[in-house]
Amino acid sequence: MEEPQQQVKRLSRRAARLESLLEKYKRKSQLQYTLIQLSEQASTVAELTLLYPAIHNILSQYLPGKSFYVVLQNRFTQALELSYFVDEKDAVAIPLHEAHHFKDGVTGHVFKTGKTVYLTKEEMLSRAKAGEFKILGSQAEHWVGVPIYRDGAIIGVMVSQSYEAEQSYSEHQVELLEVMSLYLATAIERVKKRELLESEVKIRTRALMQSNEALNKEIDNRKRALERQQILFQISELATQFSDIDDVYKQVHDIIRSITFADNLYIALYNKEEQWLTFPYSVDEKTRYKTRSFAKGYSELVIRTEQSQLIDCTRAKALAMEGIVERPAGYNHNLAATSWLGAPLKTATGVIGLIACQAYDHKYEFDYDDVELISFVSNQIASVLQTHLANQALKISHQQLEHRVAEKTKELQQTNLHLQMQMEERKKIEQQLYHDAHHDSLTGLPNRSLFLTQLEKTLKKHHRYPEDNFAVLFIDLDKFKDINDELGHQAGDQFLVWVSQSFSECIREHDLLARLAGDEFVVLLDHLTDRQQAEDVAKRIIKVMQQPFCLKGVCMQSGASIGITYSNKLYRNTDEIIRDADAAMYYAKNAGRGRYEFYHPLLSASSSAQKQHDQHHLDKLPTHFRYTEIVNWSDSAEPIGFIEAFGEHPVLGSTSFDILKKFAAEKPQHLEIELQLLKKAQDVAACRNDDILFNCSTMLLENNHFDVLKQQLVTEGNALCLLFEESEIRFASSQQILNLKSLAEMGIPIGLNNFGKDRCDLTLISQIDFTYVLLSSTFSKRVLQQTSYEVQLQGILAVTQVKGIKVIARGPAILNFRSLLEKHGLQLFFGKQQALDKGQETCAFIPTFDNESIPS
User: Fold this and answer.
1) Cα 565 to Cα 563: distance, rounded to the nearest angstrom
2) Which ranges constitute the DSSP H helices of 114-170?
3) Going by DSSP bridges, is the β-strand pair 559-566/469-478 parallel, antiparallel, or unpaired?
4) d(CA 115, CA 109)
């Protein structure tokens, strides 16, 4: 066996060999990475001035010294020229100021020999004394020069040097410089080619810019041609659109002002027979023009020469010295124009006048372009003015005739006066009709239409000025039905009038109080600074409603439940505001009536943070279902039922999930609750033989949720008719509408819930194949109370009959709905409600109420 000592030696030799190989591979890898960096820089930099710093930056990671420079041979002068220079001690100017630069130095020695040279300070001094080269610049401790070759010929030298004695260069570092020099020439050539390409691009770009300039000039010429054509159109319109000569003069001024400076302009007419100049139109900041005899002024010069005249201060003096222009005695030369331009008005019969523009105090200097333009315009305007002047003369001749006609028209004027009085009376009637259409006939308050219009304006104003807040108070009267039942409907009407007057005293003058319907009132408070102002109004209203209402010796105690919504930048339409105020009002009513609540799910919640947190997690609430029978007057009809999920909320008590889902902690939880309730509803429907209707959210129709909905419907079987709220469908996206239509195409029954609550949009039920349409109780009450809503109901029935849709009515009074059914031919309406316990029906019946109408 091999001795242990020999094994140790053999393993030591093997370890040394492995270390040598590892060091070799490390150098190879480092060299390869350096070359890759050099290739990337050569591919990315656009100029040689950027390439050298990049190479220097790469080498500085591996070389001891930071001094580095590159010298290349000028192929025309054959001299060695500095291309890049960074030195720890010397500036760029030092090597450039040395005699012959690099030719006689150690750099030139490397260039001559074409070999790599590594010298220490002592070696460099020794060889310099021997006369091999001269020492230029500061003496380095270590100096390495590597020749740069291209196509076998040396083109320059790359140098790195260190001024610290301990910073020497290893063989690997010298080898790195040599390898870099081999690739440097290729990199320089690539960058030069890129520079040449960019130069060619700049040249072509310059040529394109010149072409664009020529094109722009052509465009400018065409624009000027179009402007002249437009001016011709305007002048042609003067002949037909204006009958008053003064209006024609003003339009001429506007045309001149559109082409040149015309702040001071006058139009003069020339009477050749009487040798007079008249000035029918003038706008001037210093001079007032009056009719004068023909003399030697600027205007007369234009008329005599029949040519346009451009007169500046120099020419004005020359004309005065030559006697062509003469100023009247006492003329104030301070009022003289510094630039004057006049053009004759020529017609077939000769010159009839001129148009003149002038500028004072060198405010503007007219040029020959202005002369050309105004001459062009004046030639076109002259005939138009002549036509209008002739028409003016004809108009004067007709004035006498018109005077005689006026005498005979006095009787007609009296008749017209009587007719005007009748028109004023009719206007008052129309105003009264408008008032009646937008105000409640009983209380005189604004109605729903006027209130929604004003609320929409207020919302838009809030979007523009978020600091201007507003609030909406939704008021429902407590025990109003008891007053109607015990005192009669006439007393109920008097009570509503008394309520409207009392509410008006609780608000400011610019606030808006409106009656929506029945015992529902709304108040719009504008220009609020904080929520307390809305609370104060609510408190005043509640206090007023605490007073008993007495009639014929009988006193009844009423009250008001108020829901308040405060302005919020998230509101995008009035329906959202009314919806939230309505929901807040129901919270107030459920919490004990005779109180107000702001729109928020935790108004009366405990101060415990954990309880507030749990109230948002609706999946933790105990859940039960209530079944509502849909009464069908048809003898051979299939049974129909409506199920609704309720949760035992710690604040609101047993509350419909249609309300609770609005306050889910987050959207994923809302979706999870929707799917859970849908699954439970499918289980309930599977145990029954009738058609079951169940309310869903349009969130399930979103693309990222719709596949889950379809999978659940297919997996559990199609045992439900899915109802969707009309208010949500109205604001659904186009993709949600397509997904809704695809449910109908799959044979899944769908329905529209709470239709006609705020508006009656027949396009919804005409464009989508619903199986059922459930009228809102609000709409049903209005049909019973206002005849105008009967027309809307007839339209709904006409569309649904054509589409084969079943219409279901619901409301708080079955007897009233029976009369509605018999009158309008409806077959379906909400009957009684019963609780469901684990899929089993109980015997206890509960009166039917929905989310819109909680009885007093």
Assistant:
1) 7
2) 121-129
3) antiparallel
4) 9
Q: Could you confirm whether 614 is annotated as catalytic?
A: no
DSSP per residue over 593-624, as a string? SS-EEES-TTTT--S-HHHHHHHH-GGGS-EE
**Model confidence over 385-422: pLDDT tens digits?**
777 776 776 777 777 778 878 887 887 888 888 888 88
Amino acid at 400: Q
CA 267: distance to chain centroid? 50
What gap in Å lies between CA 277 and CA 293, rounded to an integer?
6
- Report the SS3 class of residue 37: helix
* C-alpha–C-alpha distance, residues 856 and 850, integer Å: 13
Cross-strand bridge partners of residue 641: 629, 692
The catalytic residue among 87, 519, 582, 658 is: 519
Q: Which burial class, exposed, middle or buried, applies to 524 when counting CB atoms under 10 A from its CB (0-12, 13-18, 19+)?
A: buried
Give CA–CA dist 770/33, Å, rounded.
Answer: 70
Exposure letters 682-718 (e unless 16+ CB within 10 A, then b) = bebbeebeebbbbbbbbbbbbeebbeebbeebeebee
Q: Within 13 Å of residue 331, how many CA atoms lie on the same side as its CB?
A: 11
Q: Are 651 and 618 in contact (CB under 8 A)?
A: no
Residue that is written with structure tokens 């003898």 in the block: 635
Encoding tokens for residue 805?
């849709």
Q: Using pLDDT thresholds of 50, 70 and 90, give the confidence band for residue 526.
A: very high
Residue 717: pLDDT band (50, 70, 90) is: low
pLDDT in tens, 422-455: 888 888 877 777 777 778 888 889 988 899 999 9
